[in-house]
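Collaborator request, handled under Task 6.
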Amino acid sequence: MIKDYFKLAYKSARQRRMRSWLTMIGIFIGIAAVVALVSLSQGLQTAIGEQFVSLGSDKIIIQGISSGFGPPGTGVEVPLTTSDLEVIEKVKGIDNVVGRLVRSVKMEFNDEVKYAFGASLPEDNEDITLAVEANNYKIGQGRLLKKGDKFKVMIGYNFAEDFFDDSLEIRDNILIEDVDFKVVGILKKSGNPQQDETVVIPESAMREILGIEEIYDIMPAKVNDGENLGLVTERAKKELRKHRNVEEGKEDFTIQTPESLLATLNTILLIVQGVLVGIAAISLLVGGIGIMNTMYTAVLERTKEIGVMKAIGARNWEIMSIFIIESGMLGLVGGLIGVSLGFGISKSVELIAFQIYGSFLIKADFNLGLLIGMLMFGFIIGSLSGAFPAKQAAALKPVDALRK
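Structure tokens returned to the collaborator:
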């Protein structure tokens, strides 16, 4: 019996092929948007999590509180200083801490002048190791900076390839704040735009060319093996509050762990995802209204057919079932098309991002529950949209239906 209802619904939809396709547009556009947005945001969460795992769970990041957006140190009212670094070094559980500068500097190569952000690198071997680990620097060509490399730099992959009109190579010279530096290393492409466009400069040279003393923009610190990261973080906060003479809750600095950074990023991603899915849901609402309109029209067109069915004994619930199944099928087919379209869109974005960044930092992460849920959602939206027209059809009296 149920099988016959589906056959009848399929036959009716085929007879109104153009109208059925137009009706499903709102459904499959909305579902495609939801599938694409959710899968990409889930993929981004996974990629970010992998990046944090690769950096290790034994490091904390100390920064001054910024009043705006931008690289570390941008808009900070009370910057970190060398004395702050000395305080952190003495905290129980801290193995090592390094200070770094991140500043906008003038770059010149082959008479082309541009501005970019340069990051300092400490010059002690142990400190260099920590900075390299904290930033996951991996050399592609040449070598990493080492102790004694005062007027040498290593540069990101994108900076070498695309920043100037002419590509930079190992042993090329570049002017930074009108001072000559030699390129000794080019980093591997990481997929992180900030890192791929970086210029890493020895700390002493960066302080000299910018005239900066005793200030740091960011301090990565490594915690001793076996120490509780949260406990060490609280000790560091307590000592810094005391040193900087600030009350608890009114700190002019932040200390973040990989877990807290990841939680913050995930919260932001969830908010963005919720907003985007909410916008996509408007399309689903429009699609549901379209199905309802189509089913009302179908009731008017098939009034005599309904009258005949009721005259030969069809009951009200059977008439309702026919129309609800038909509208549900429209939603389900729209869902199938939407899921396929959403899959295609998100995979295309993933491939385009790979071509641009050279890594799967942006990738689609498909959850079977999401796909099945979207198909069920399409069917339910369709069925609910067809419920009122179905009830109207079932309420028709056989005599009145056959007169029309």
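The cover message to the collaborator said: "Residues 30 and 280 are 5 Å apart (CA to CA). The chain has two domains: 2-52+263-403, 58-256. Please let us know whether this matches your experimental observations."
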